[in-house]
Amino acid sequence: FLFDNGVANALRGELRIELSERTSRFGELFEAYVIQEIFRKNEYEQLDFKLSYWQTSMGQEVDILLSRGLGEPIAAIEIKSSKAPDAADLKSLALFAREYPKSKRYCFCRTPHSYQIEELGVEVLPWRDGIQLLASL
Questions:
Q1: How far apart are CA 66 and CA 103, in angstroms?
Q2: Are 81 and 27 within 8 A, CB to CB?
Q3: Residues 108, 114, 117, 123: what is their CA dihedral angle, to the nearest 10 degrees?
Q4: Residues 6+ apart with CB under 8 A from 48
Q5: CB count, 10 Å around CB of 16?
C-alpha cells in the first residue's frame, strides 16, 4: 500500500477521474484509505499495535491483524466499501476464526449503523467508529 491514495492516483495518471461507487477502483481506494487511517491512529495515539495481514494458501485474506507481541492476534479487520456486507462477503473472517478463535473479528465499512453477523461472530461497524474503537482494544 502506498501511504496516500493521491500518490497512487497520480502514478496511474488518474488525478482528474471523478471517484464514485461506480468507479472500478473505488473498493481498492476505500480499503487503502481505511488502512492508512488505521496506521495513523496507531501511530498518533501510540497504541503499539503490530499491524499485519493474514492469507491462506488459496488466496483468502484478512486485511488487517492487530497484535502485540507473539501469540494470537487481538483483532482481525476486514474492510469493505459496501454499505451492508453480509456473511458471504466476510468468508475470510470465518476461515480466520478457525485458526484464531479467540481473536475479535470486525468489518469496517460504509454502513450507517453497527450490526452483528452472529454466525461469524463479526461486528460490522461504520469505518470511522471502527477506527475510534482501536483505542479500547
A1: 9
A2: yes
A3: 50
A4: 42, 68
A5: 6
Q: Nearest 10 degrees: CA dihedral of 21, 26, 32, 36?
A: -40
Q: Side chain identity at 87, as an amino acid letter? A: A
For residue range 52-109, list pLDDT tens digits in order. Answer: 999 999 999 999 999 998 889 999 999 999 999 999 999 999 999 999 999 999 999 9
* Segment holding 95, helix H or strand E: helix 91-99
Give 3-state DSSP helix, strand, coil % of the chain, rounded to 5. Answer: 40, 25, 40
Q: Identify the CA nearest to 79 among candidates 130, 115, 114, 120.
A: 130
Strand partners, 76: 65, 105
Instruction: Say if residues 91 and 64 touch (Cβ distance below 8 Å).
Output: no
> How far apart (Å, rounded) are the C-alpha atoms in residues 20 and 55?
29
Q: Provide the sign of the torsion angle of the four alpha carbons 135, 125, 107, 81, taken in this order.
A: negative
Tell me the three cell numbers of residue 118: 452472529
- pTM of structure: 0.87
The three three-digit cell numbers of residue 12, written as one number: 496511474
